Structure to design on (308 residues):
Protein backbone atom coordinates (compact mmCIF):
# COMPACT_ATOMS: atom_id res chain seq x y z
CA UNK A 1 0.00 0.00 0.00
CA UNK A 2 2.41 2.68 -1.09
CA UNK A 3 2.77 5.18 -3.88
CA UNK A 4 5.35 3.21 -5.86
CA UNK A 5 4.38 3.17 -9.54
CA UNK A 6 2.66 -0.07 -10.43
CA UNK A 7 1.32 -1.18 -13.78
CA UNK A 8 -2.26 -0.08 -14.26
CA UNK A 9 -3.22 -3.63 -15.21
CA UNK A 10 -1.46 -6.60 -13.64
CA UNK A 11 -2.10 -8.89 -16.59
CA UNK A 12 -2.93 -8.32 -20.25
CA UNK A 13 -6.29 -10.08 -19.95
CA UNK A 14 -7.32 -7.67 -17.19
CA UNK A 15 -6.71 -4.78 -19.58
CA UNK A 16 -8.45 -6.56 -22.43
CA UNK A 17 -11.66 -7.40 -20.55
CA UNK A 18 -11.70 -3.89 -19.12
CA UNK A 19 -11.42 -2.37 -22.61
CA UNK A 20 -14.09 -4.69 -24.05
CA UNK A 21 -16.49 -3.61 -21.31
CA UNK A 22 -15.81 0.09 -21.83
CA UNK A 23 -16.25 -0.33 -25.59
CA UNK A 24 -19.57 -2.17 -25.17
CA UNK A 25 -20.83 0.57 -22.87
CA UNK A 26 -19.87 3.15 -25.49
CA UNK A 27 -21.56 1.13 -28.22
CA UNK A 28 -24.75 1.43 -26.15
CA UNK A 29 -24.96 -2.29 -25.31
CA UNK A 30 -25.49 -1.44 -21.64
CA UNK A 31 -25.51 1.49 -19.25
CA UNK A 32 -22.57 1.81 -16.89
CA UNK A 33 -24.91 1.97 -13.90
CA UNK A 34 -26.39 -1.42 -14.80
CA UNK A 35 -22.91 -2.80 -15.27
CA UNK A 36 -21.77 -1.50 -11.88
CA UNK A 37 -24.79 -2.96 -10.13
CA UNK A 38 -24.29 -6.38 -11.67
CA UNK A 39 -20.58 -6.31 -11.04
CA UNK A 40 -21.15 -5.28 -7.42
CA UNK A 41 -23.50 -8.24 -6.99
CA UNK A 42 -20.93 -10.68 -8.37
CA UNK A 43 -18.20 -9.27 -6.12
CA UNK A 44 -20.48 -9.66 -3.14
CA UNK A 45 -21.23 -13.30 -4.01
CA UNK A 46 -17.58 -14.14 -4.58
CA UNK A 47 -16.65 -12.34 -1.39
CA UNK A 48 -19.00 -14.35 0.84
CA UNK A 49 -16.45 -17.03 1.55
CA UNK A 50 -13.21 -15.06 1.54
CA UNK A 51 -11.69 -11.62 1.08
CA UNK A 52 -11.11 -10.90 -2.60
CA UNK A 53 -7.95 -9.19 -3.72
CA UNK A 54 -8.12 -6.25 -6.09
CA UNK A 55 -6.23 -8.06 -8.85
CA UNK A 56 -7.14 -11.43 -10.33
CA UNK A 57 -10.04 -12.07 -7.90
CA UNK A 58 -11.52 -8.77 -8.99
CA UNK A 59 -11.14 -9.51 -12.68
CA UNK A 60 -12.49 -13.07 -12.34
CA UNK A 61 -15.65 -11.46 -10.99
CA UNK A 62 -15.48 -8.93 -13.82
CA UNK A 63 -15.33 -11.51 -16.63
CA UNK A 64 -18.05 -13.64 -15.06
CA UNK A 65 -20.30 -10.57 -14.83
CA UNK A 66 -19.66 -9.67 -18.43
CA UNK A 67 -20.30 -13.21 -19.70
CA UNK A 68 -23.56 -13.43 -17.76
CA UNK A 69 -24.68 -9.98 -18.86
CA UNK A 70 -24.06 -10.76 -22.53
CA UNK A 71 -25.75 -14.16 -22.19
CA UNK A 72 -28.84 -12.50 -20.70
CA UNK A 73 -28.89 -10.08 -23.61
CA UNK A 74 -28.48 -12.99 -26.08
CA UNK A 75 -25.37 -11.29 -27.47
CA UNK A 76 -22.90 -14.00 -26.51
CA UNK A 77 -24.31 -17.42 -25.68
CA UNK A 78 -22.29 -19.68 -23.38
CA UNK A 79 -22.05 -22.46 -25.98
CA UNK A 80 -20.67 -20.11 -28.60
CA UNK A 81 -18.10 -18.77 -26.17
CA UNK A 82 -17.10 -22.27 -25.09
CA UNK A 83 -16.63 -23.25 -28.73
CA UNK A 84 -14.45 -20.23 -29.41
CA UNK A 85 -12.43 -20.79 -26.28
CA UNK A 86 -11.68 -24.37 -27.33
CA UNK A 87 -10.77 -23.18 -30.80
CA UNK A 88 -8.25 -20.73 -29.33
CA UNK A 89 -6.87 -23.39 -27.02
CA UNK A 90 -6.34 -25.77 -29.95
CA UNK A 91 -4.78 -23.01 -32.00
CA UNK A 92 -2.24 -22.24 -29.27
CA UNK A 93 -1.35 -25.90 -28.87
CA UNK A 94 -0.96 -26.44 -32.61
CA UNK A 95 0.82 -23.25 -33.62
CA UNK A 96 4.61 -23.53 -33.59
CA UNK A 97 6.24 -21.24 -31.08
CA UNK A 98 6.95 -17.78 -32.49
CA UNK A 99 4.27 -17.84 -35.16
CA UNK A 100 1.07 -15.80 -34.95
CA UNK A 101 -1.78 -17.77 -33.38
CA UNK A 102 -5.01 -17.62 -35.36
CA UNK A 103 -8.28 -19.48 -35.39
CA UNK A 104 -10.17 -20.59 -38.46
CA UNK A 105 -13.65 -19.11 -38.72
CA UNK A 106 -16.17 -19.88 -41.39
CA UNK B 1 3.23 -34.19 -30.21
CA UNK B 2 4.02 -34.65 -26.51
CA UNK B 3 2.68 -31.90 -24.31
CA UNK B 4 5.75 -31.39 -22.26
CA UNK B 5 7.81 -29.98 -25.08
CA UNK B 6 7.75 -26.29 -25.81
CA UNK B 7 7.50 -26.40 -29.57
CA UNK B 8 3.98 -24.96 -29.54
CA UNK B 9 2.94 -21.48 -28.46
CA UNK B 10 2.54 -20.83 -24.77
CA UNK B 11 -1.05 -21.55 -23.78
CA UNK B 12 -2.70 -18.53 -22.13
CA UNK B 13 -4.46 -18.93 -18.79
CA UNK B 14 -8.09 -20.02 -18.65
CA UNK B 15 -9.49 -16.51 -18.06
CA UNK B 16 -7.25 -15.11 -20.80
CA UNK B 17 -8.77 -17.65 -23.22
CA UNK B 18 -12.28 -16.71 -22.08
CA UNK B 19 -11.51 -13.07 -22.83
CA UNK B 20 -10.14 -13.99 -26.26
CA UNK B 21 -13.32 -15.94 -26.99
CA UNK B 22 -15.47 -12.96 -25.96
CA UNK B 23 -13.43 -10.56 -28.03
CA UNK B 24 -13.56 -12.81 -31.12
CA UNK B 25 -17.33 -13.09 -30.94
CA UNK B 26 -17.92 -9.39 -30.26
CA UNK B 27 -15.60 -8.34 -33.07
CA UNK B 28 -17.39 -10.70 -35.46
CA UNK B 29 -20.69 -9.14 -34.43
CA UNK B 30 -19.28 -5.70 -35.08
CA UNK B 31 -19.84 -4.60 -31.47
CA UNK B 32 -16.20 -3.89 -30.69
CA UNK B 33 -13.28 -2.85 -32.83
CA UNK B 34 -9.83 -4.23 -31.88
CA UNK B 35 -8.19 -0.89 -32.65
CA UNK B 36 -10.61 0.83 -30.27
CA UNK B 37 -9.70 -1.67 -27.54
CA UNK B 38 -6.00 -0.92 -28.02
CA UNK B 39 -6.76 2.78 -27.82
CA UNK B 40 -8.69 2.38 -24.56
CA UNK B 41 -5.89 0.36 -22.98
CA UNK B 42 -3.24 2.82 -24.14
CA UNK B 43 -5.24 5.76 -22.82
CA UNK B 44 -5.54 4.36 -19.30
CA UNK B 45 -2.07 2.85 -19.21
CA UNK B 46 -0.22 5.93 -20.40
CA UNK B 47 -2.30 9.06 -20.89
CA UNK B 48 -4.81 9.45 -18.09
CA UNK B 49 -3.73 9.17 -14.50
CA UNK B 50 -3.32 10.94 -11.16
CA UNK B 51 -1.24 13.68 -12.78
CA UNK B 52 -4.57 15.13 -13.98
CA UNK B 53 -6.07 15.27 -10.50
CA UNK B 54 -2.82 16.70 -9.15
CA UNK B 55 -3.13 19.67 -11.51
CA UNK B 56 -6.68 20.25 -10.30
CA UNK B 57 -5.56 20.22 -6.66
CA UNK B 58 -2.65 22.58 -7.32
CA UNK B 59 -4.91 25.00 -9.14
CA UNK B 60 -7.43 24.92 -6.31
CA UNK B 61 -4.60 25.82 -3.90
CA UNK B 62 -3.42 28.87 -5.84
CA UNK B 63 -6.49 30.17 -7.66
CA UNK B 64 -9.40 31.27 -5.42
CA UNK B 65 -11.81 31.65 -8.34
CA UNK B 66 -11.08 28.15 -9.56
CA UNK B 67 -11.39 26.83 -6.03
CA UNK B 68 -14.84 28.40 -5.67
CA UNK B 69 -15.91 26.99 -9.03
CA UNK B 70 -14.58 23.56 -8.10
CA UNK B 71 -16.61 23.34 -4.92
CA UNK B 72 -19.74 24.67 -6.53
CA UNK B 73 -19.62 22.41 -9.61
CA UNK B 74 -16.56 20.20 -9.90
CA UNK B 75 -17.67 18.54 -13.12
CA UNK B 76 -17.78 21.87 -15.01
CA UNK B 77 -14.69 23.26 -13.33
CA UNK B 78 -12.51 20.30 -14.33
CA UNK B 79 -14.10 20.06 -17.76
CA UNK B 80 -12.79 23.58 -18.39
CA UNK B 81 -9.30 22.17 -17.77
CA UNK B 82 -9.94 19.41 -20.30
CA UNK B 83 -10.70 16.62 -17.83
CA UNK B 84 -13.95 14.91 -18.74
CA UNK B 85 -15.21 11.72 -20.28
CA UNK B 86 -15.80 8.19 -19.14
CA UNK B 87 -16.70 7.89 -15.47
CA UNK B 88 -16.39 11.61 -15.00
CA UNK B 89 -19.99 12.58 -15.72
CA UNK B 90 -20.62 13.85 -12.20
CA UNK B 91 -17.67 14.66 -10.01
CA UNK B 92 -17.61 16.20 -6.55
CA UNK B 93 -14.58 17.68 -4.80
CA UNK B 94 -14.33 17.34 -1.02
CA UNK B 95 -11.88 19.42 0.94
CA UNK B 96 -9.69 18.41 3.85
CA UNK B 97 -9.21 20.91 6.65
CA UNK B 98 -7.67 21.06 10.08
CA UNK B 99 -10.85 19.56 11.51
CA UNK B 100 -12.12 17.23 8.76
CA UNK B 101 -10.43 14.52 6.73
CA UNK B 102 -12.11 12.95 3.71
CA UNK B 103 -11.72 9.39 2.46
CA UNK B 104 -13.09 7.87 -0.72
CA UNK B 105 -14.23 4.32 -1.29
CA UNK B 106 -16.63 2.42 -3.52
CA UNK B 107 -18.37 -0.21 -1.44
CA UNK B 108 -20.27 -1.58 -4.45
CA UNK B 109 -17.37 -2.22 -6.81
CA UNK B 110 -14.66 0.31 -7.70
CA UNK B 111 -16.29 3.54 -8.94
CA UNK B 112 -13.56 6.14 -9.28
CA UNK B 113 -13.06 9.47 -11.12
CA UNK B 114 -11.22 8.07 -14.16
CA UNK B 115 -10.61 11.42 -15.94
CA UNK B 116 -8.78 12.73 -12.86
CA UNK B 117 -7.11 9.65 -11.39
CA UNK B 118 -7.09 7.00 -14.11
CA UNK B 119 -7.76 3.38 -13.14
CA UNK B 120 -7.88 2.61 -9.41
CA UNK B 121 -4.99 0.75 -7.75
CA UNK B 122 -5.45 -2.88 -6.72
CA UNK B 123 -5.95 -2.12 -3.05
CA UNK B 124 -8.85 0.26 -3.83
CA UNK B 125 -10.58 -2.68 -5.51
CA UNK B 126 -9.90 -5.18 -2.72
CA UNK B 127 -12.58 -6.40 -0.33
CA UNK B 128 -10.34 -5.46 2.57
CA UNK B 129 -10.33 -1.77 1.67
CA UNK B 130 -13.91 -1.60 0.43
CA UNK B 131 -15.33 -3.07 3.61
CA UNK B 132 -13.00 -1.52 6.15
CA UNK B 133 -12.81 2.05 4.85
CA UNK B 134 -16.35 2.56 6.10
CA UNK B 135 -16.18 0.44 9.25
CA UNK B 136 -12.80 1.44 10.61
CA UNK B 137 -11.35 4.29 8.55
CA UNK B 138 -8.85 5.26 11.21
CA UNK B 139 -7.32 1.78 11.21
CA UNK B 140 -7.16 1.78 7.41
CA UNK B 141 -5.47 5.19 7.43
CA UNK B 142 -2.90 4.06 9.96
CA UNK B 143 -1.96 1.17 7.64
CA UNK B 144 -1.14 3.80 5.05
CA UNK B 145 1.01 5.53 7.66
CA UNK B 146 -1.52 8.32 8.08
CA UNK B 147 -2.25 9.38 11.62
CA UNK B 148 -4.78 12.09 12.28
CA UNK B 149 -5.38 14.03 15.45
CA UNK B 150 -7.99 12.18 17.54
CA UNK B 151 -10.39 15.13 17.27
CA UNK B 152 -10.19 15.23 13.45
CA UNK B 153 -13.47 14.10 11.98
CA UNK B 154 -13.29 11.55 9.15
CA UNK B 155 -15.91 11.65 6.43
CA UNK B 156 -16.10 8.61 4.17
CA UNK B 157 -17.62 9.12 0.74
CA UNK B 158 -19.07 6.12 -1.06
CA UNK B 159 -18.60 6.59 -4.81
CA UNK B 160 -21.22 5.29 -7.16
CA UNK B 161 -21.63 4.95 -10.91
CA UNK B 162 -23.35 8.37 -10.73
CA UNK B 163 -21.15 10.39 -8.37
CA UNK B 164 -17.38 10.20 -8.07
CA UNK B 165 -15.37 12.10 -5.49
CA UNK B 166 -11.94 13.70 -5.41
CA UNK B 167 -10.25 14.71 -2.17
CA UNK B 168 -8.61 18.13 -2.17
CA UNK B 169 -5.86 17.66 0.44
CA UNK B 170 -4.53 20.44 2.63
CA UNK B 171 -1.66 22.39 1.15
CA UNK B 172 1.40 21.61 3.26
CA UNK B 173 3.34 24.36 5.00
CA UNK B 174 6.67 25.35 3.45
CA UNK B 175 5.23 25.68 -0.05
CA UNK B 176 4.68 29.44 -0.13
CA UNK B 177 5.54 30.93 -3.48
CA UNK B 178 5.58 27.56 -5.25
CA UNK B 179 4.30 27.47 -8.81
CA UNK B 180 1.23 25.44 -9.71
CA UNK B 181 3.50 22.98 -11.48
CA UNK B 182 5.74 22.52 -8.45
CA UNK B 183 2.69 22.02 -6.25
CA UNK B 184 1.16 19.48 -8.63
CA UNK B 185 4.41 17.54 -8.34
CA UNK B 186 3.84 16.75 -4.65
CA UNK B 187 0.17 15.74 -4.88
CA UNK B 188 -0.11 11.97 -4.89
CA UNK B 189 -2.87 9.64 -6.00
CA UNK B 190 -3.31 8.36 -2.45
CA UNK B 191 -3.71 11.90 -1.12
CA UNK B 192 -6.54 12.45 -3.60
CA UNK B 193 -8.24 9.24 -2.44
CA UNK B 194 -7.65 10.36 1.12
CA UNK B 195 -5.49 7.52 2.40
CA UNK B 196 -2.50 9.82 2.72
CA UNK B 197 -1.73 13.49 3.32
CA UNK B 198 0.38 15.67 1.09
CA UNK B 199 3.72 15.80 2.81
CA UNK B 200 5.56 19.02 3.44
CA UNK B 201 8.71 19.17 1.34
CA UNK B 202 11.83 18.06 3.16
Amino acid sequence: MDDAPAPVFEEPWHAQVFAITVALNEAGVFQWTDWANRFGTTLKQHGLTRDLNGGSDYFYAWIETLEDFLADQKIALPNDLQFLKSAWEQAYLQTPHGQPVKIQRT
Amino acid sequence: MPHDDHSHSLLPSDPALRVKALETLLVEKGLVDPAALDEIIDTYSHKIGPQNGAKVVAKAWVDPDFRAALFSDATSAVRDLGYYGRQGEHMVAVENSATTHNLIVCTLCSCYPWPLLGIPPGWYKSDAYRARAVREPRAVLSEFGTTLAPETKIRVWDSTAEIRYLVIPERPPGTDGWSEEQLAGIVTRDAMIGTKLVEAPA
Observations:
- The beta strands of chain B are 91-95, 100-105, 153-158, 164-168.
- The mean pLDDT of chain B is 94.
- The radius of gyration of chain B is 20 Å.
